[in-house]
Specification:
heterodimer; A: 2-enoyl-CoA Hydratase, Chain A, domain 1; seven-stranded mixed β-sheet; 9 helices; 10 strands; 35% helix; globular; B: 330 residues; alpha/beta; 2-enoyl-CoA Hydratase, Chain A, domain 1; 15 helices; 9 strands
């Protein structure tokens, strides 16, 4: 069913050009994509059908927030909120406004997260999805505010909160204002926690820095998408610090599962049904009340 | 070994050497040069004031990172009438980059937390240069929960280049440890007073830095990234660190103006390392004054105020209805 959704031209954005090295662009690149991991040639039609996952090696390509929503929530159920919030420039940082404008044009997004109410298998949820293509999914004032609004909406409506994360780090150009979003979002999640409302975080590739070290890591259930890089400090920084090679598979979803940092690793094709199963146990399951 | 001399103090050091030279010359030859010496000493004092009145951010960072800058254990020694260090996270180990303990000031009990740097290379190696692993944050968490249980307000001193970026730290959940602290601190039922005393390095600083009052020593900095890293990321050029340092607005004055910190605590002339005892006295006075204010709130008010304090941090605007409508049409 969600294959149809994903197939809607409105949502599909296969920019194979971006997935190649510059000199790798061939005249046929609008037809096929070379897998980043195994170099297999995959027809774009096939890749889209397969939810942007390599049919040969199960490599999960990064997808946009809109595509993610399309393959996750019930058709026509998504009602966006807080769309009108846009970034300012709290520090007057050189070229920040230009960078924001470029990101808006390039991605067609207003910021690095989309938030709204939706349903999964007819179970209502509040959902937020981050997008890595918007300034590396960095958390500035707007991302912090929208995540906080999502948590507060969840508290208000008593509906489970689901957040899909992808982030390269803090929004450097907003300085300490950006760092403080970690405190703000974590405080908002605490209120959900105290109220006994379910919060599921799905960490997708890559989730690192301040997002990992705040609202993402304190969910009731943490799902990592197959192969996702999940880190506090990125591999490059660590390699520089310790001047040694990193272990095989370090900071990948499976590594985090092994070390007890996430509850499960789930393939993209199973994500929606897995979320639905968790929601069902949680929402429909009879509870012991003493 | 790190150079203990701040380059911008060179004129002062030269002047001091000249004064010393004249003094020994006076003693040797029995000549009276006191007038000349007094003149030079006055000049030195004036020069020091001038230099310190006009420091740029990179110079402030140099003072903040000075090897003799008082550490958490120095402050604990001076501030408390009695202080007992408490060890371990009960899960993995005892992180020496994170100091924790309990103490008394004028019969009021406090829980104390602080990043702990060393002063010698050897001590710095054992303290990991003040960069905690997850067990450091988890020790802090254990102590904070205990503080809540026994109604002890918390003093948290920040002085770290950052949380340690290493294999073990990642394996044991550095991100989770910091995130959990933020979550718990956000509604802990006792006052939390935070002071950045030296380096406020990003998430590793914030990991014990969510509180009711956020203060900074005059020559400390608090930043989302080091100016060096910021310049490398944004301008692909680490040599642009001085520009990044100004653009990032990381010194106490800039952060007070941005409304992120509540108060700046004065340091002795020439920086805290010139007179640690005096610096501790100024710190203690500020902490006790803020605690007197925080004491006036009920627990519910305290927690609600803390939530609102962070809730309102962020700068953004709202699109007009016209803009929204235009987008709908598109
Ligand atoms: Zn492949």
């Amino acid at each position: 069913m969600f294959k149809d959704l994903f197939g809607k031209p409105k949502y599909v954005t296969v920019r194979s050009r971006e997935r190649h090295d510059r000199d790798d662009i061939s005249p046929d690149s609008h037809l096929w994509t070379k897998c980043t991991n195994c170099n297999a040639i995959i027809f774009n039609k096939k890749l889209v059908e397969n939810l942007m996952v390599c049919p040969e090696c199960n490599y999960h390509f990064r997808i946009s927030a809109r595509d993610r929503l399309a393959i996750t929530v019930d058709e026509d159920s998504f009602q966006e909120f807080a769309r009108d919030i846009q970034s300012e420039d709290p520090l007057g940082f050189p070229q920040y406004r230009e960078k924001l404008l470029q990101a808006k044009i390039k991605t067609g997004l207003d910021e690095a997260v989309i938030t709204g109410e939706a349903a999964i298998d007819n179970m209502p949820v509040v959902i937020g999805v981050m997008d890595f293509t918007f300034l590396g999914g960095s958390m500035g004032s707007v991302v912090g505010e929208k995540i906080t609004i999502a948590a507060e909406r969840s508290l208000e409506t008593q509906r489970p909160l689901i957040l899909f994360t992808t982030a390269g780090g803090a929004r450097m150009q907003e300085g300490l204002v950006s760092l403080m979003q970690m405190a703000k979002t974590s405080a908002a999640v605490r209120r959900l926690d105290k109220a006994g409302i379910l919060y599921i975080c799905v960490m997708t590739d890559p989730t690192s820095g301040g997002v990992t070290a705040s609202f993402a890591s304190i969910a009731d259930i943490i799902i990592a998408e197959t192969g996702a890089l999940i880190a506090f400090a990125g591999p490059r920084v660590i390699k520089q610090t310790i001047s040694a090679d990193l272990p095989e598979g370090f900071q990948r979803a499976e590594f985090l599962l092994e070390h007890g940092m996430v509850d499960m690793v789930v393939d993209r094709k199973d994500m929606r049904s897995q979320l639905a199963r968790i929601l069902k146990i949680h929402v429909q399951g009879v509870r012991y009340c003493g | 070994m790190v150079n203990n001399i701040l380059d911008f103090e060179k004129p002062l050091i030269e002047l001091a050497a000249k004064i010393k030279e004249l003094q020994s010359f006076m003693d040797e030859k029995g000549l009276d040069l006191s007038e000349e010496i007094n003149r030079l000493m006055e000049r030195a004092e004036k020069l020091q004031k001038e230099i310190y009145a006009d420091l740029d951010t990179m110079q402030i960072i140099q003072i903040a990172r000075h090897p003799n800058r008082p550490t958490a254990s120095d402050y604990a020694k001076y501030i408390f009438d009695d202080f007992i260090e408490i060890h371990g996270d009960r899960k993995f180990g005892d992180d020496k980059a994170m100091l924790g303990g309990i103490g008394l000031i004028n019969n009021q009990a406090f829980t104390f937390l602080g990043h702990q740097k060393g002063k010698t290379t050897k001590e710095n190696l054992s303290r990991n240069f003040g960069m905690p692993h997850p067990e450091g944050y988890r020790k802090a968490l254990r102590l904070m929960k205990q503080a809540e249980k026994f109604g002890r307000p918390i003093i948290s001193l920040i002085n770290t280049p950052g949380a340690y970026p290493g294999i073990g730290a990642e394996e044991r959940g550095q991100a989770e440890a910091i995130a959990r602290n933020l979550m718990v601190m956000s509604d802990l039922k006792v006052p939390i007073i935070v002071v950045v005393t030296g380096e406020g390095g990003s998430g590793g600083a914030l990991g014990i830095g969510l509180g009711d009052r956020i203060m900074m020593l005059e020559y400390s900095y608090y930043s989302v990234s080091t100016p060096e890293a910021c310049a490398a990321i944004i301008w692909k050029n680490a040599e642009k660190a001085p520009e990044a340092a100004e653009a990032l607005k990381i010194n106490a004055k800039a952060l007070k103006k941005l409304g992120i910190i509540d108060r700046i605590i004065k340091e002795p002339v020439g920086g805290a390392h010139k007179n640690p005892e005096m610096s501790a006295k100024l710190l203690k006075t500020a902490i006790l004054e803020e605690y007197e204010e925080l004491k006036k709130f009920s627990v519910e008010e305290l927690i609600e105020n803390r939530y609102q304090k962070y809730r309102k941090i962020g700068e953004f605007s709202y699109k007009s209805d016209d803009e929204m409508l235009k987008e709908e049409v598109e």
